[in-house]
Amino acid sequence: MTVRIGVVTFPGTLDDRDTQRAVRIAGAEPVPLWHRDKDLKQAEAIVLPGGFSYGDYLRAGAISRFSPVMEAVVAAARDGMPVLGICNGFQLLTETHLLPGAMLRNNHLHFVCRDQKLRVENAGTAWTADYTAGQEISIPLKNIDGRYVADERTLDELEAEGRVAFRYAGWNPNGSLRDIAGIANAAGNVVGLMPHPEHAVEPLIGTGGTDGLGFFTSILRKLVNV
Amino acid sequence: MARVVVDVMLKPEILDPQGQAVQRALPRLGYQGISDVRQGKRFELEVEGPVDDAALTRIREMAETFLANTVIEDFAVKVES
Amino acid sequence: MARVVVDVMLKPEILDPQGQAVQRALPRLGYQGISDVRQGKRFELEVEGPVDDAALTRIREMAETFLANTVIEDFAVKVES
Amino acid sequence: MTLDTVSHAAGTPETALPWAELGLKEDEYERIREILGRRPTGAELAMYSVMWSEHCSYKSSKVHLKQFGEKAPETDALLVGIGENAGVVDVGQGYAVTFKVESHNHPSYIEPYQGAATGVGGIVRDILAMGARPVAVMDPLRFGAADHPDTKRVLPGVVAGIGGYGNCLGLPNIGGEVVFDPCYQGNPLVNALCVGVMKHEDIHLAKASGAGNKVILYGARTGGDGIGGVSVLASETFDSTKPAKRPAVQVGDPFQEKLLIECTLEIFREDLVAGIQDLGGAGLSCATSELASAGSGGMRVELDTVPLRDSSLSPEEILMSESQERMCAIVEPGKVDRFLEICEKWDVIATVIGEVTEGEQLEIFWHGDKIVDVPPRSVAHEGPTYHRPYARPDWQDALQADDAGALPRPESGEELRKHVLQVVASPNQASKSWITDQYDRFVQGNTVLAQPEDAGMVRIDEESNLGVAVSTDGNGRYTKLDPYTGAQLALAESYRNVAAAGAKPLAVSDCLNFGSPEDPAVMWQFAEATRGLADACLELGTPVTGGNVSLYNQTGETAIHPTPVVAVLGVIDDVHRRTPMGFAEDGQLIYLLGDTRDELGGSAWSQVVHDHLGGLPPRVDLERERLLAEILVAASRDGMIDAAHDLSDGGLAQALTESCLKGGHGARIVVPDSIDPFVLLFSESAGRAIVTVPRSEEVRFNDMCGARGLPVTRIGIVDGDGIDVQGQFVLPLAELREAHEATIPALLA
Ligand SMILES: Nc1ncnc2c1ncn2[C@@H]1O[C@H](COP(=O)(O)OP(=O)(O)O)[C@@H](O)[C@H]1O
Ligand SMILES: [Mg+2]
Fold first, then answer.
1. Number of Cβ atoms within 10 Å of the Cβ of D458
2. Torsions phi, psi of D422, nearest 5?
3. Residue D510 assigned ligand-binding role
4. Active site: which residues (chain A) (predicted)?
5. Catalytic site residue D665?
6. Torsion, Cα of D733, D738, D744, D747 (10° steps)
7. pLDDT reported for residue C1
């Protein structure tokens, strides 16, 4: 049986088709979900892709948070369904408080698009099992609101519980506190990060690497083994 | 019709690079004597019906859950004449 | 130290996609009765020295040439207590 | 306020109208009266004035643009030619590609962010209107001096606007240009290109036919944007209580445009439209008259049904409004419901505003009263034509006589090294990544090559790996020295870039940026450049599919350098065969293809080292360009080369720097005895490229070039971590990188 991975499209989502392609390349079946959908169509995991939902007007993720599909996603995530938020999806996960902290304008105030080195800090989450802790990977980064902030207590807690999933390596591209590029919830089923693994799944395309494929093979393996 | 203004500013402890960029540019443009600049958002809401306590309570709630993200931002609600 | 606030809003005839996005979202969140929303910027300037007429004139000039582009935006300068 | 209806106009022939304030000439106004047999109404005058403007009617340029059709090369590749929103090219496997460049120069000077943003929005809608999914954008830009204070205002705003809009639409930005020159100080050039892909059967045209079909306006509400001119009608003649000033600049809403794209593509998929047109310059005036003019019948529009953002707008203003993010479709009555349903799904406002009629007139009503009754062709396609006088300027001879070959040249290896560093660090030659990193080049997951490569390349079919490549080029300095040759050089460079990436050049789009057509010297530059471009397109077999003209780019009496920007589109059967520009492997051989002559007129070296512009631009040999391109494409297809980079401004010194830095490998160069090291490094002779050849392919590669008669010279080997020009100098890559990459951030960050 093929594994069904839901990919949510909000008005203004951009990377939904790329994410569906990455899911396919990993060997799973992408299930398109529309922001007005009230159920998740038997998806076993959910990806919230990048883009500018509702134009990112007000704040990134602030409006899409109130869509019908997010009610279902939040409830499912609380019950343990694996959810990955990429870029706008990560911003959305913080707005819904599934993940702590918030995302602000990059400290240099510009949109930045580049190949970015990351260190995988936690290879124990639903989405990172195919990596090893400490491994450096290179995947594209592209955003203007990518600066992760949280208060000191939250940051200390994240560190202590091993919930910092990814850190920027070599260069902090946006002023994120403690070089944080991605985090997980306490259960490890919900993961958010700013860089785009779905853009690094085919040689030749984009930056030409395939370091991002591990996100999608990790979840596939986990769901198949259940 | 009455206008209610909601001002949303980053909390003081959060770095505000937009405000800083403005401040850094000022001396170059010949403006001295501004020791700090913070940049935030201003929302002007046109409210139908009376702006009574009930309406203001609802607007405050809207500001708290929607217009501002209180993890990083403070807000203030004011009625304009 | 005194605080001077500069509010910069898009001119009324200019499209304000941000304000519109907020307004369109409100009914979905359960807020009725807001007939229009405009979103602008708020600058809080901390001024060293006295905020006299000369200082205000300079701040107005700064707002006009730098903080706002008067082709599409209006601004207002206010002294906060 | 009395409404100026058609019958009112017929009964009040003596009423004076502000035609001069609207930019019409007296004889043009007389012609309108003649066409109508009466004085125009205010609304009709609004339509004619804007549609007969230079921008919409091409009245000064069309006698010259005609050559693109007259001299068009024989080709089967062109599915739709000049005259539509954009041309369409057959790229094989049932796919068609449409692409076009446009300008948004003046608005970007006034409001850099919004001016540039709405420029991107406009060209994307043109591509969408052809039936295509937009798949990439590019942005050829020109600014004033890099260190001028106003450049710090204009450039960051323009770049943020292009990024802010394009990134939000999900269109990868795969290339463009950034050039600084004081001549653009008050007239920056903001050109934008969009590429779209569709299947042959999905091509849509802007025409309204089929009486009874509905006219649907959809997208954003109409507001008072960009109607600065027509407000004189409202305020002075008909109603003095209105605000006299309407903004000349529009604010874009990229989110709305993204919805418009997805909504329109879904409408195309269900085959719901009979004709479609985007709303750009001249708004509804343009869309309704063009649709009706290209169709078979007439059209009737109820203007008061147009959804407004500002209820105080007059009918004239609604007709002229340039509010962004709107489209107009012609839909059979039976398909209207489904059309509106799809719009509702995407939260896009859609309104039936009229229908196609049996008649011949475009009739527009306002609350039941007829305010426009015109033959649509007279508005859209039969505007005035000017044969403006032109004359070679008297300074041209002196400019050409001021030969750059006479400038003092470096006399030692040490001096050569200094000049190399100086050139690669100069704002025009320096790395532009501070700018291009603000653009998303990965979105859609099909980007094969993007800046700083010679051409941008995207995959258009995931199964077959079919791809297209596009490059844009233009050199105002060359064109100033010799407009005919300069335009040809722009085409040659763009053509060469596409071939260097491994794609076969197919078709051309262009944006012709010039000064005032009322100046005979500028008009001469324009006439020469169009003639040069048309001749060269014929010779290279690449038809012009469409483009744009931007005139009046001048401050007072001083025009910008004549700046034709030329885009070439190419096709590659399998993107795996693309050729990148970076040197990838030590030990590979570096070959210089083509002939290097002592050609420094208009060169980067003459500008950077001597602040000089004079002499003649490099010679053009189109037969050679074609041969070079064939070799580059064949060598890539057959796996004989691993890297290729075209030689243009900055010559070999610049090309080597870029290829070494991109690949992270150095180069050891041996200067052939036959050539002077300075000329080898800095000449800008056209028709050249460098390639790297694995040793195993050397014989095969040489045989191919020899058999076809392309001169090639082995000039060195990929090696080490610096550029080592033997017997002259060594430049470590780290030092080169610092020189090349630090300049733009230092000026702008
Ligand atoms: N420099 C040019 N070269 C070739 N075609 C051009 C040029 N300028 C304009 N055209 C063509 O003339 C037609 C009208 O142009 P334009 O009014 O700019 O179209 P639109 O309003 O759709 O942008 C289009 O088909 C355009 O491609
Ligand atoms: Mg068009």
1. 24
2. -65, -45
3. yes
4. 87 (nucleophile), 196, 198
5. no
6. -160
7. 77
Q: Which of A97, A104, A109, A174 to mutate to test the interface with B (most CBs of B within 10 A)?
A: A104
Cβ atoms of residues D81 and D411 within 8 Å: no
In what helix (H) or strand (E) does residue D637 lie, and over which residues does it extend?
Answer: helix D622-637
Sign of the torsion angle spanned by Cα atoms C29, D347, D127, D499: positive
Among A107, A108, A132, smallest CA distance to A121 is for A132
Please name which of A32, A49, A112, A34 lies closest in space to residue A86, comparing C-alpha atoms: A49
- Superfamily the domain D57-86+103-173+190-380 falls into: PurM-like C-terminal domain (3.90.650.10)
At D648-687, the pLDDT tens digits run: 999 999 999 999 999 999 999 999 999 999 999 999 999 9
Give the type of residue at D7: S
**Beta carbons within 8 Å of D479's beta carbon, 6+ residues apart:** D486, D487, D489, D490, D525, D529, D561, D562, D563, D564, D617
Give me the catalytic one of D8, D64, D104, D419.
Answer: D104
Distance from CA of D318 to the nearest CA of C (A): 13
Query: Any idea which residue has 């419901």 for tokens?
Result: D337
Whether D31 contacts D384, CB under 8 Å: yes
Amino acid at B78: K
What tokens were used for A6?
Answer: 């839901």
Catalytic residues of A: 87, 196, 198
Is D55 among the catalytic positions?
A: yes
Number of folded domains that form chain A: 1
Instruction: Residue C61: count other Cβ atoms within 10 Å of its Cβ.
Output: 13
Q: Where is C8: in which H helix or E strand?
A: strand C2-10
Which residue, by CA, sits nearest to atom 10 of ligand 1?
D547
Of D655, D256, D117, D253, the C-alpha closest to D424 is D655
Our answer on whether the CB atom of D85 is closer than 6 Å to any ligand 1 atom is yes
Q: Which domains does chain C have, with CATH numbers?
A: 2-80 (3.30.1280.10)
Closest-CA residue of D relative to C68 is D111
In CATH, what number is assigned to the domain containing residue A99? 3.40.50.880
Mean local confidence (pLDDT), D448-469: 97
The CA–CA distances, whole Å, from D148 to A129, D30, D180, D425 equal: 53, 46, 10, 17
What's the pTM? 0.94
pLDDT digits (tens, 9 = 90+) for B41-80: 999 999 998 999 999 999 999 999 999 999 999 999 999 8
As a whole-number percent, the residues of chain D with pLDDT over 90 amount to 91
Task: Report pLDDT for B81.
Answer: 67
ipTM of the shown complex? 0.91
Longest dimension (CA), chain C: 48
- Residue D400's Cβ-count burial label (10 Å; 0-12, 13-18, 19+) is middle
